[in-house]
Amino acid sequence: xxxxxxxxxxxxxQWRWQLQPSLVLVLLPLVALLLLHRRKSNSTLRLPPGPWxxxxxxxxxxxxxxxxxxxxxxxxxxxxxxxxxxxxVPAVVLSSPEAARHALKTHDADCCGRPPSxxxxxxxxxxxxxxxxxxxxxxxxxxxxxxxxxxSMRRVQAARSTREAQVEKLVGDLAxxxxxxxxxxxxxxxAVDGIVGAFAFGETxxxxxxxxxxxxxxxxxxxLLSSFSAEDFFPGAAGRxxxxxxxxxxxxxxxxxxxxxxxxHVLDQHLDPARAKPDGDDGSSRSHLVQExxxxxxxxxxxxxxTRDHVKAILMDTFVGGNNxxxxxxxxxxxxxxxxxxxxxxxxxxxxxxxxVSQELVRHDDxxxxxxxxxxxxxxxxxxxxxxxxxxxxxxxxxxxxxxDIPADTKVIVxxxxxxxxxxxxxxxxxxxxxxxxxxxxxxxxxGAGDGRGERGVHPGQLALLLRLGAAxxxxxxxxxxxxxxxxxxxxxxxxxxxxxxxx
Length: 504
Fold this sequence. Notes:
Blueprint: H1 7-10, H2 12-43, H3 67-78, E1 81-86, E2 89-94, H4 97-106, H5 118-123, H6 137-149, H7 153-158, H8 160-175, H9 184-200, H10 206-210, H11 214-226, H12 230-233, H13 237-246, H14 248-271, H15 289-304, H16 308-339, H17 341-354, H18 371-383, E3 393-394, E4 399-401, E5 404-406, E6 411-414, H19 416-419, H20 425-435, H21 460-481, E7 493-494, E8 500-501
Parallel strand pairs: 2-6
Antiparallel strand pairs: 1-2, 3-6, 4-5, 7-8
Helix pairs in contact: 6-15, 8-9, 8-21, 9-16, 11-14, 15-16, 16-18, 16-21, 17-18, 17-21, 18-20
């Protein structure tokens, strides 16, 4: 006789209700053991000190409108290596040269990750650039392209005529200002755009493409790359919804469409078979960064997976980084000199002694004589770094910094603005600037390539900046000699992305 199987035994709903209490009884001890093990493992770590935190938001309520100032104030109470929790994201803030050097040089291979971020993800075409992408073979190859094709001394020398033309235009604009207030940032951005356009985009200038929106596009791009997005600290649907409600997501989409249109225009021009190749100062054919990237795309696109978006992502780094770094530094240097007339006179006297009266521009050969000007650039970078907070990194495994344990997958924030204000930094930079030997080539400071603070001469980017600043100082003197007692709108504060702002 076959056993009788009741309906209750074959009813799956009945089985689920019967198993739930058993599953709870089995899982509760396992969850308790996991939590205990996690707490025990964390208790064995010597984590950095940090301020108290609130549930859910962590330390976000302690970050103000100027994060570099807020983080410095917290670091003064808790130390140069400080642990925070920003929403659900653990972060360590480094506010001293020693801590930054330890993390970015000693443990460079273990801090080469990049934390996910909504703004950089969109503007870098899904992390296809160099500045915001985790380290990989592709990033290494692209850095090599930057070094050889954009930042090399050969490139600086090849575009000498273009650079000097832009510098001469800047000097003339400043000298013609007369007694009217001078909007330094407009002149500086125009000069830098002319040089970056000649170097990278093949005589294609963003100022012409964006008309009157050029400076706004640059500033908006920097703001989105450096802004504190809700999705960065609450990954997932909740963070994306907050960004949509605050309008940050629509701002990102709008600026991305503008920049993407500009890069498409640049690529279409260079892909046009009827386009004539530009000539260098020596009459030979010379290419630009965009042409080198296109050639790389054509030759290795199938083997290395390089696409049109990869090329545009690299152009994004060049456009935002090239315009911002030089413009911000030059803007602040000129503003600080105008704010301190004695220092301005020293720079002008040095230029007068080093440069012939009949010579309109400061030349490359004049640079070794302009040591005080070099010190002005160092001091400007110390007080007003182009990026107050460096591009965040992420640890790939546990490391030790300043005697503290930094767990894996921790966001690493370097407060460059606070590091420049550590006691003794000014004297150290002045000594290095004054004893620096004659100019020679050095590896450029690429995004994410360590803290780049080693003094080995002046690299091409600083050389071009010194040339422009020296010419601007000469132009200011020439303007005063012609009766121009012009004033300027002098900034007083760095914004979160390093830009010069006026504040009460």
